[in-house]
Write a structure and sequence with these properties.
The chain has 343 residues and is α/β, with parallel strands linked by helices. Among the domains are: 183 residues, Alpha-Beta Complex (inorganic pyrophosphatase (n-terminal core)), CATH 3.90.1640.10; 46 residues, no CATH class. The chain has seven helices and ten strands.
Length: 343
């Protein structure tokens, strides 16, 4: 995607007033989130805007904002009303109309042969205006749009093809397709930011859900750098990331482990104690071995056995000295130095 493509889209949106957005049959959260994000972004431009899918949207996309705006036909419901009834030569003289309060009455005046049809034979057909600009989001080929894409009715319509599938046929006047992107929602987010279209919380949340679903909440190894970049910008606009799909699995595994029948406390199994390490409780239950003296006197050499034993006489006990508490006689006399100063 380059600036030239973005400029073409911006110019087309500014030029045409009747704009439509179409998705393939049974759109994914990514495809419908991208389409609704673009729809809400263009909603305030004062254009005649519509969004459609070939069949009624599935339940999985029901949480997206503005899902109730999705129709099963293209174009705004502002086309001509056609009243049809059987006609034979000479039955109708003229057709006119009258106005009565808030009603418009179509008057069919009978001719010479009279009207030969009943009220049940009258058919009413509501026409739609073909869009001038059509965004096709997430469809690899025009046949994926079913009845929405009528080549005769859309012969003058400018078609913008936005997709990331490898088998996209490259149809349309403005083609924005590439397999290097992991979601259609990240492409639409890039279009909105690059062209200056409106961005608010509802738009950001739809696009965030689309990106997260397509990338398995950003855990798919093929998640593109644009997906992370757009996710960051969308979060700055208020979007919230959905909870990790693996969080429930982690909680389930923890609950299953807690509910398992665990062995008796201190009773070690092979799985729990594969190396046979004893727990403190096991050590307490083991009988203590007989204690042995830590010091073992060395054996005397054989030669010493024939030598006479030397008897050691014990030393006399020292007499305790009595302490004299009386001071010497010259204690109170002045002391006079009696030494010599000669070296």
């Amino acid at each position: 995607m380059d600036n030239l493509t973005f400029n073409k889209i911006r110019e087309a949106v500014d030029k045409y007033n009747n704009i439509a957005i179409a998705t393939p049959k049974d759109p994914t959260v990514d495809e419908m989130g991208a389409a609704l994000g673009l729809y809400l972004s263009l909603e305030d431009l004062g254009k005649s805007l519509s969004i459609a899918t070939p069949n009624t949207p599935l339940v999985e996309v029901s949480s997206l904002v503005a899902i109730d705006e999705v129709k099963t036909s293209l174009g705004a419901e502002s086309g001509d009303l056609v009243v049809s009834f059987p006609y034979r030569e000479g039955e109708i003289e003229k057709v006119s109309y009258t106005r009565d309060d808030n009603f418009l009455n179509i008057v069919v005046k009978a001719g010479e042969k009279g009207l030969n049809f009943d009220q049940k034979d009258v058919q009413f057909t509501r026409g739609t205006n073909a869009p001038e600009l059509l965004f096709v989001v997430g469809a690899a080929r025009v046949s994926d749009l079913g009845k929405l894409f009528d080549p005769a009715a859309l012969k003058d319509t400018i078609v913008v093809n936005i997709d990331n599938k490898s088998d996209n046929q490259g149809f349309g006047d403005i083609v924005m397709t590439s397999t290097k992107f992991s979601s259609v929602s990240e492409i639409i987010a890039n279009v909105i930011f690059s062209t200056g279209f409106k961005m608010d919380l509802d738009i950001a949340q739809n696009l965030m859900l689309g990106i997260a679903t397509a990338t398995n909440n950003f855990q798919d190894p093929e998640t593109s750098s644009l997906a992370f970049e757009m996710a960051g910008v969308l979060m700055r606009n208020g979007a919230l990331r959905p909870s990790s799909p693996t969080s429930n699995s982690r909680r389930k595994l923890t609950a299953d482990y807690d509910n398992e029948e665990k062995p008796f406390a201190g009773e070690a199994s092979i799985e729990q104690n594969p190396f046979g390490v004893k727990t403190p409780s096991e050590l307490e239950r083991q009988p203590r071995p007989d204690t042995k003296p830590r010091y073992i006197p060395p054996a005397q050499p054989k030669a010493a056995l024939n030598q006479p034993q030397i008897q050691l006489q014990p030393k006399p006990a020292a007499q305790p000295q009595t302490q004299d508490n009386n001071p010497p006689e010259d204690w109170l006399e002045p002391k006079i130095y009696k030494g010599s100063t000669n070296f």
